[in-house]
Design a protein that fits this description.
The protein is mainly alpha-helical and 125 residues long. The chain has helices spanning 2-19, 24-41, 59-71, 79-124. The chain has one domain.
Length: 125
């Protein structure tokens, strides 16, 4: 699950880099939505390991802490740990679903706009 989170965070960063080069309002609005989703998954303000004390944890930190806690036990995970795991997993799945919907709709619209502007520039040049 953590790998899935990091894979999508990398995807966010690629989209943000590509989105802010041209079409000011459209791409910035989509970039803000992408950043909002990213901030649910990871701590976007962390600069070092100690920043976990200053900023709220992302779902990746919560999931890693849960895995660490459960892995040190010689017994099966408790009912509480299983419930927390289901809750975190549901929140991660919801955030990834939001990302996928955003990419399929608004990011696709900005990409079509970019392509249209690229074609316009090529035909007028």
């Amino acid at each position: 699950m953590c790998h899935y989170i990091y894979q999508n965070v990398d995807f966010f960063r690629i989209l943000l880099e590509d989105g802010e080069h041209d079409f000011a309002a459209e791409s910035k609005a989509v970039a803000a939505k992408l950043t909002a989703i990213e901030s649910v998954l990871v701590d976007i303000h962390r600069e070092s390991q100690r920043d976990v004390l200053r900023n709220p944890a992302g779902l990746n930190d919560t999931l890693l802490d849960l895995i660490s806690t459960v892995s040190v036990s010689d017994t099966a995970p408790t009912k509480q740990a299983a419930a927390v795991s289901r809750g975190i997993t549901a929140r991660v799945d919801a955030a990834i679903g939001d990302l996928e919907r955003l990419v399929a709709t608004e990011v696709a619209a900005v990409n079509r706009l970019a392509l249209g502007r690229e074609v316009e520039a090529a035909s007028s040049g």
